[in-house]
Amino acid sequence: MVGFCETCMELEPYPSYPITSGVFLYSPPPFPVIHHSLPPPPPPPPPSRVLLSFPFNPSFFFAMDHQRSMSLLQFMNDEGLVPSQEEEDKRKKAIHKLKQIVSSWIKKVAMQHQLPKHQIAVTSATVLTYGSYGLGVHSPESDIDALCVAPFFATIAEDFFVVLYNMLKRRPEVSDIQCVKGAKVPLMRFKFDGISVDLPYARLRVLYVPENVDILNPFFLRNIDDTSWKSLSGVRANKRILQLVPNVEKFQSLLRILKFWAKRRGLYGALLGYLGGIHLAILAAYVCLRHPDATLNALTTNFFRTFAFWPWPKPVSLHEAMLLTSVDTIEIRPFSFMPILLPSSPYEFCHSNVTKSTCYRIRSEFIRGHNMTRDLLKPDFIWDNVFQPFPYSKRYSQFFKIYLSTSDQCELGNWVGWVKSRFPGLLVILEGIQGFCDPNPTEYVDNEKTEANVVFYWGLQPVDKNSLVDIESVDGEFMKIIRNGYEGSPGRMELSIIIASQLPNNAMFDDETIKGRKTCWRVIDYDKKRNQVYSQHVPHCLVGHVAPTCEAEYLSSGG
Ligand SMILES: Nc1ncnc2c1ncn2[C@@H]1O[C@H](COP(=O)(O)OP(=O)(O)OP(=O)(O)O)[C@@H](O)[C@H]1O
Ligand SMILES: [Mg+2]
Ligand SMILES: [Mg+2]
């Protein structure tokens, strides 16, 4: 078990005494433990056996459990985790309009392809929502993940990325539109009425795609291409999760809570080796399946207990949660510190960038959550403590600073997106040198600089205080990774090491203003650079203009 620092109720960064539970399968990195002000960590909290010293009164425990569930719901409300009716209506309206655009797009494409009139009349395409919106757990700042599903004749390269792109671009509701062609799941990303939308594409071997097409039905999955298959996997996974969980409402509340917890504790973001929405959704579903009658409090407590003692890298699978022995086909699993299996055929693993350091951080946070929630009778318990922002500046003595800037504000989004897509490589380089790195996912802005910028501060735990990272060699190695493939004009990148006291004032790591600090950026106006594209089906027919490719923010996931 990992100890607490008594002054700040934070877990020690690394176990300072032998681990007894067998939770950690690899040896902890050989770093000194920072005792924030008190030297040795206290012994682990007393086991829950202590509860049995009270005369056992079930109704008292039920009452306590109920009370904690109620206060958790109140906490969610106070934090604004559930979008207002007004926000919901705005999203519904945006999706409705998107469906209309897609419907008229497919007719236009059918005409451009010179399909017979009767086929043009019946052809249709639709939009299926998935991700956090599809699961009903989105927060006000979540994007809408919407899959455009169309008949086979509409190509991705031309009809989706050119014709639909241009139709969207002309709409007054649409801004900041980008084509993300290089990702495992290619997509268009834009804002619709101010809401971020991720729009990947799938083609089915049909002429008519029903509005609520059942993509778990094998009929629709016949002979589809590889990209479509990958794009559909998010929708299939979501649908399966919602079918499996015994109580959708409780699952949604639990997942909302966990996403908020992960954001507050600096653990949200698959790109930086932490947990993405899909990972948390499967972990939450696992707990719901194992405890079908549990209250919200019991589910949250069980979540922390289950994963604090999970024997990683044993995969988490919803089949196991249902006590089924195995699934039919499992892809050959690449090594992963925290493998999590998608719940729908062909049972691939969620893409993961978890590293040794981030795995350690996540597990420490599971244990912290467990230690804080395990005792139902703890007199001074308040949920607020569980969700305290992670105190980076107290925890780390040094920070790896990544300063990214462009002289033109419009180029910042693409430049930062590109560098971020290469962050997994940088993390590996830093871990190789330092052994440990905590890539804080929060993006900061240096307001003292006149140029458009985004700054990252990653926590470091040097082996000894005098050891310094050789910035030049890190810079050289990382430049090799980011140099190839960027299509725009690259911005500036400065890497440096700072100590905790040099953190700028606006990087307030330890207070509650952590919410809403994500940088907003604008995207290049592609109109200035677009190229004409002609139809492959009708010679000399101009189908539109192609946007220069914006590189994938995610190396291989559709998020
Ligand atoms: N690493 C991944 N592995 C497999 N599927 C992924 C991965 N990342 C994203 N996806 C798919 O894309 C969907 C949308 O991802 P996204 O990153 O938008 O997260 P989200 O769950 O919608 O949370 P948020 O509220 O932060 O948007 C997920 O539900 C999942 O189906
Ligand atoms: Mg999303
Ligand atoms: Mg998304």
Task: Describe the fold and architecture.
This protein is α+β, with helices and mostly antiparallel strands. Helix content is 37%, strand content 13%. It folds into 3 domains: 85-241, Beta Polymerase, domain 2 (2-Layer Sandwich), CATH 3.30.460.10; 242-385, Orthogonal Bundle (Poly(a)-polymerase, middle domain), CATH 1.10.1410; 392-510, Alpha-Beta Plaits. It has helices at residues 58-78, 85-112, 117-122, 131-135, 156-170, 226-244, 248-264, 277-290, 296-308, 318-321, 356-373, 383-386, 392-395, 409-421, 423-434, 471-483, and strands spanning 126-130, 144-151, 174-180, 187-192, 195-204, 398-406, 437-438, 452-460, 492-499, 531-534, 542-546. It has a 5-stranded mixed β-sheet, sandwiched between helices. Strands 7-8-6-9 form a 4-stranded antiparallel β-sheet. A hairpin with a 2-residue loop joins strand 4 (187-192) and strand 5 (195-204). Helix 7 crosses helix 8 (277-290). 42% of the residues are buried. The structure holds adenosine-5'-triphosphate and magnesium ion (2 copies).
